[in-house]
Automatic annotation (TrEMBL):
Key words, A-Z: Signal
Record-given protein name: Uncharacterized protein
Record's keyword annotation contains Signal: yes
Superkingdom of the organism of origin: Eukaryota
Record's signal peptide: 1-19
Length: 158
């Protein structure tokens, strides 16, 4: 859990306090906004100009707004987050400015591979179960090394 917390802190995010999204805690520079659809919401677009089905994070923004897929939470740093069985994942969504020139658009991961309309760019994925396995393996290896040293010390003493 500590390794996961350090990873998330390195990303500027707080470690999860439970597996539910509603229990997430956010540092002051991030806001938690649930994306929700509205009939009057502006449309969202991928960097190549194609329309996406994402939902605007700030429909009233005059200079573009990041958009996230339904069920994702919008961060004020223009990332979208989702809590799932495999952990928490972060994505760069789309934008309400079709030209992507607006200041509100998420201007990262814009290479041709990550700008495709069929997928959002995965920024980071904190997989808790994988982290736990890695920590357990490290602890087990340390315990085995300690036991080996103890055995050698006892053998040398006799």
């Amino acid at each position: 859990m500590r390794a996961l917390g350090l990873l998330l802190l390195g990303l500027g995010l707080a470690a999860p306090s439970s597996s539910s999204v509603s229990a997430l805690s956010f540092p002051p520079h991030l806001s938690k906004r649930q994306s929700s659809s509205s009939a009057s919401s502006p449309r969202c677009y991928y960097p190549n100009g194609l329309e996406s089905s994402d939902i605007p994070c700030n429909a009233g923004a005059s200079d573009g707004s990041p958009c996230c897929a339904k069920g994702y939470i919008c961060f004020s740093n223009k990332l979208c987050v989702r809590e799932g069985e495999g952990g928490r994942s972060y994505h760069r969504g789309s934008c309400t400015d079709q030209s992507w020139r607006g200041e509100g658009c998420p201007r990262f991961c814009l290479t041709s591979a990550t700008a495709l309309p069929t997928a959002t760019a995965v920024i980071a994925r904190a997989t808790l179960s994988a982290r736990r396995r890695a920590v357990r393996a490290t602890v087990a290896a340390a315990a085995a090394a300690k036991e080996t040293r103890s055995s050698r010390s006892r053998a040398a003493a006799s």
